[in-house]
Amino acid sequence: MIRTRSQLLTIAGRLGALGAMVGIAAGITQAAIGSRIPNWTGNKAHPVALGLLTVALSISAFVAARTLRTAPPPRNETLTAITLWFAVVAFVCSTTVGRLWAIPGVLVLTAAGVTLTAFGWHHFLSVVAKNWLRGLLGILGALELMMAVSAAPTITVAAGLVAGGALIAAAIQTKPGRQTRVSLLVAASLPFAILTWWTIVTPLLTVVAFVIGVAATRASVVTSVDAGIAAPLDVHSVG
Amino acid sequence: MHEPTTGTTDDLHRYAPTVDTLIVGAASSRGVATDTPGAGAGFMSRRSVLHHIGLGAATVVVAGIAIGSYRVFDNGVLDAGDGRAYDAWANWRDDRTLRGAVAAAILAANPHNTQPWTFHVTSDSIELFADPARRTGTLDSLDREQRIGLGCALENLVLAATARGHRATVTLLPDAADATHIANVNFVDGPPEASSLHDAIGRRHSNRGPYTSTAVADDVLSTLESVSAGLDGVSVRWFTTSADRTTLGALIIDATKAIIDDEQQSKDSFVWFRNNRDDIDTHMDGLTLDAQGLSPMMLAAAKILPATSRTAGDAFWLDQTRTVHTASAAAYGVITVADPDDPVQQLVGGRLLQRVHLAATVAGLGLQHMNQITERIDRDASLSRPSKFATRMDALLAQPDRQALSTFRIGHPVRPGRLSPRRPVSEVTR
Question: B2 in a domain, yes or no?
Answer without folding.
Answer: no
